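Dear support,

We are seeing what looks like truncated structure output for some complexes. This example has two components. We would appreciate it if you could run it in full and send us the complete token output so we can diff it against ours.
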Amino acid sequence: DAKTTQPPSMDCAEGRAANLPCNHSTISGNEYVYWYRQIHSQGPQYIIHGLKNNETNEMASLIITEDRKSSTLILPHATLRDTAVYYCIVRAPVNAGNNRKLIWGLGTSLAVNP
Amino acid sequence: SAVISQKPSRDICQRGTSLTIQCQVDSQVTMMFWYRQQPGQSLTLIATANQGSEATYESGFVIDKFPISRPNLTFSTLTVSNMSPEDSSIYLCSVDPWGQGDYGYTFGSGTRLTVV
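Here is the complete output from our reference environment:
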């Protein structure tokens, strides 16, 4: 699975959009981009994933560049409860012979400030 | 999505003893995963547990130290054996609720273990 690079920390004002970047320049054609977050003292929580098209759900939007070498997770109106470590992971689908393991980096520690 | 109940949430244990961590899922799942998260670090996969077969351990983790049981499709335990202070970590279980591996995984809330 391709490696990802994320900034170690970011700040965001409450009510503003939080844009979290992820670089995955070695991503393969069949690898998906996944985002999880981990709020302090809790287990990770799945946010969103995508292949090449932009995706949106009730939690966030995922913007993937046309060359798929980077992506951005957008929290449109960040709240204090969005303070967490955000992880970007790339992985091929299971039917491509990949196992179900996730390889975790250190993520981005997002602080939402009042 | 599945809901996981993980117990205990935290414990302080004496070195040389063992602790068994339980994960109960509210639906049947094929695969369960056990992770360790050392202080200030990211998650490291310990093993993958399938019902009815031996767990598959990752490099650096052995069955004698981290025995795993998976008696049915909703339950698993991880035991941390002969503990030392280096085993102080958060231990997490995780499942693939969709059974397909291509969607989001669900995690338990974790067990914060301190070995003294």
